[in-house]
Specification:
The chain is α+β, with helices and mostly antiparallel strands. The chain has 2 domains: 178 residues, Elastase, domain 1, CATH 3.10.170.10; 160 residues, Neutral Protease, domain 2, CATH 1.10.390.10. The chain has 10 helices and 10 strands. Strands 1-5-6-4-2-3 form a 6-stranded mixed β-sheet, with helices on one face. A two-stranded antiparallel sheet has the order 7-8. Strand 5 and strand 6 form a beta hairpin. The chain is globular.
């Protein structure tokens, strides 16, 4: 992970911040511009920044030793020096600071999910300590994974609530660490959209795991509750109905496509990584609900086996990823309809395999 310190993934798409900078109130515009400025210098640094793992190489793990959870939360105290002041560790009681306690709980929940569902010892598979820093900067509208820790802004409280509020947002960001340690999908165009989609997939499953929900019980929303009541929207993204998460005078309309007929081309947002992720997101939703049960035991297991397989490279495109999921479905669930369910899901979004 020697190169991850320059790889920073923010959950909030830049097009949302750009729209706020154009359409918001003076305070909202100032918060959005400050957040964009903080994010911009490192967004382009993501391209090609993931560490390269030789094909087929697996985490070494700690043979014979039981995994030990190590979660620590720091308070940046509205500054930008990280990690900040240590405020809660693994053996410490709740602090009463809601952002601190949410960050600690949801990082811990994500660790539990990966161990319980996939026997993965932290996001690197080798027992990596998981740190989070809250109260980052002033009115900072984002949360990000920088390769070493989670960092959370408090939001502007007019459009965005605190970014520790949603367990799926934290699961999303920490999953970037899993992807960086496995396929290392380059953060550009289709491979970058897959990178974002994988984080949405596992972020949603972390929420479902915490709530003990089966696939047909989940809301399939990413960041539900992150908007204040002033916003005309329900979440940052919808996996069940991409393009419907919000339609707001300040934020604009959710631009995510649900299929390849509406694929968005261009260079903004690293080739549309936060926008076109709606296509593989929708394919996963369809596969998970068709297979049924707990998503992490069915479609999630297929996607995890795909992400960690030697066939997924840094430049893998949608169709290549889809082909591997179909193969893994048949290998993991022989004699069932899982393979057909996966193929039908990809076909519905315009990617036949």
């Amino acid at each position: 992970m020697n190169r991850q310190s320059v790889c920073r993934h923010g959950v909030l798409p830049p097009h949302i911040l750009t729209n706020i900078a154009l359409n918001g109130s003076r305070r909202q515009r100032a918060a959005a511009l400050a957040s964009l400025s903080a994010d911009q210098s490192i967004r382009t640094a993501r391209v090609g920044s993931q560490p390269i793992r030789p094909p087929g190489a697996r985490p070494l793990g700690l043979a014979g030793l039981a995994p030990v959870k190590q979660v620590t939360v720091y308070d940046a105290e509205h500054g930008t020096r990280l990690p900040g002041r240590r405020v809660r560790g693994e053996q410490d009681p709740p602090t009463g600071d809601v952002a601190v306690d949410e960050a600690w709980q949801y990082i811990s929940d994500t660790w539990d999910f990966y161990l319980d569902a996939y026997e993965r010892d932290s996001i690197d598979g080798n027992g990596m300590a998981l740190d989070g820093s809250v109260h980052y900067s002033v009115d900072y509208d984002n949360a990000f994974w920088d390769g070493r820790r989670m960092v959370f802004g408090d939001g502007d409280q007019e459009i965005f609530e605190r970014f520790t509020k949603c367990v799926d947002v934290i699961g999303h960001e920490l999953t970037h660490g899993v992807t960086d340690n496995e396929a290392g999908l380059i953060y550009w165009a289709q491979s970058g959209a897959l990178n974002e989609s994988v984080s949405d997939v596992f972020g949603s499953m972390v929420k479902q795991y915490v709530n003990d929900q089966k696939a047909d019980q989940a809301d399939w929303l990413i960041g539900e509750g992150l908007f204040t009541p002033e916003v005309q929207g329900v979440a940052l993204r919808s996996m069940s109905a991409p393009g419907t998460a919000y339609d707001d005078p300040v934020l604009g309309k959710d631009p995510q496509p649900a299929d390849m007929d509406h694929y968005v081309r261009g260079i903004d947002d690293n080739g549309g990584v936060h926008i076109n992720s709606g296509i593989p997101n929708h394919a996963f939703y369809l596969a998970a609900t068709n297979i049924g049960g707990f998503a992490w035991e069915g479609a999630g297991l297929i996607w995890y086996a795909t992400l960690t397989s030697p066939w997924i490279r840094r430049t893998t495109q949608f169709r290549g990823f889809a082909m591997v999921t179909a193969h893994q479905a048949e290998a993991l669930f022989p004699g069932t309809d899982a393979g057909d369910a996966v193929r039908e899901a990809w076909a519905e979004v315009g990617i036949p395999v």
